[in-house]
Amino acid sequence: MLSVKKFGSAGIVAAAWLLGVAATGEAPLTAADRQQVVEQLGQALETNYVFADKAKTLAATLRAHLDKGDYDGAQDKDALAQALTKDLLAASNDLHFFVGVDPAFAADYAARKDPARAADLRETDRRDEARKNFGFTELRRLEGNVAYVGMSHFADPDLAYDAASAAMRFIENSDAVIYDMRYNNGGYLEMAQLLASQLFRADKDQELFDYYYTDDGRRIARGQWVLPAIPAKRLTGKPVYVLTSSTSFSAAEWFGYSLQKLGRATLVGERTAGGAHPVDRKPVGTDFFVQVPIGQIHDPVDRGDFEGRGVTPDHQVASADALIFAHRLALADTAKQADAAWFAPSLAARAKAVQLTPAGLKAVAGRYEGRQIDIVDGKLLYTWRERFRATLEPLGDDLFAVEGVDDFRFRIARKAGKIVALERINRDGPTDSYARLD
Fold first, then answer.
1. Nearest CA among 355, 423, 425, 357 for reference residue 393
2. Are 279 and 254 spatial neighbours (Cβ–Cβ below 8 Å)?
3. By Cβ atoms counted within 10 A, which residue in 304, 308, 347, 388 is the most buried?
């Protein structure tokens, strides 16, 4: 399977911290040590980097830095890894490159050649992914029967198939779907293929990605198509939105980019990071590793990519506002104008939270026919029949949503500036009024 990713956010933070701290008790690197690492790194690049001619240039550039003494100040492994990463990024302009120190990874890489050891490591991978729910951070049904799928990364579907199946079944009856790729660092392209297959017909051949990559010097070419069988109903013809940000990376970018190219999804948010190349980790000696781009992916329409420039969304808005913006589009797209009008105040309140002043809260609190509104912890608490309680959420203009309810809301009725009633506005039309009693 092809992993198209960068370190997850936790990995980035940990790597950055480690690179700034010398290992306790570590003997200083000698000139021979540094030369050996640079030579081993150059060999790894020439064997695995997608661009063979550039790999030779990069290897030569690192050797030139070594010869000039640029790495003489790197007295420990972490400092050397940091310097090598910096120079690789500068010379290649490819954000995928990363050099790190991880003796355990190098040992595991060699151990995976043993079937029994490989099975143990695979089980460890499965447990680690399970703790992260295989990348599925949130599934929601938004107002207007719009499904929301939040993902932190694309897990290996061989491990994550059950979780992906559950997510696909959760959204199968929605009228539209929003995939949140804003904070997704990438992962396995096969997971992107599985999820995207739900958006297309099964009886028509449709390519999603076309790519090639190197595997320890061996070139492999593949194409990924819409799967003929999936574990849920298809969303053929339903509006699709993909949220993006500057931290959307690699496979997450490809998911949105290919759907955009095929006219199957509308992208909302900010331009993405621009990491189009599939990557892999390769050991460098027994202590280091390099994260290296190993291939190229092409979109199914123009055979292009977005390396170094990112994916431009159809609607460019601040990433923090992308969900509400896409939700509004979805409500309009589903041709349910009544839904769009009904939920407009709720979405507007989320975009710019409405808060009442203490005086405003005090004015609304009181007794109404069969109902009571109190101030609890700075919020309005609605009570009916002295048993059922729910928080009221201000929507503006004396309008309030009711916690957990979307088929009615309340409005404060005033006369000569004085509150005289609490009106229940039902979504299906009728309005009920409850007189103020105090």
1. 355
2. no
3. 347
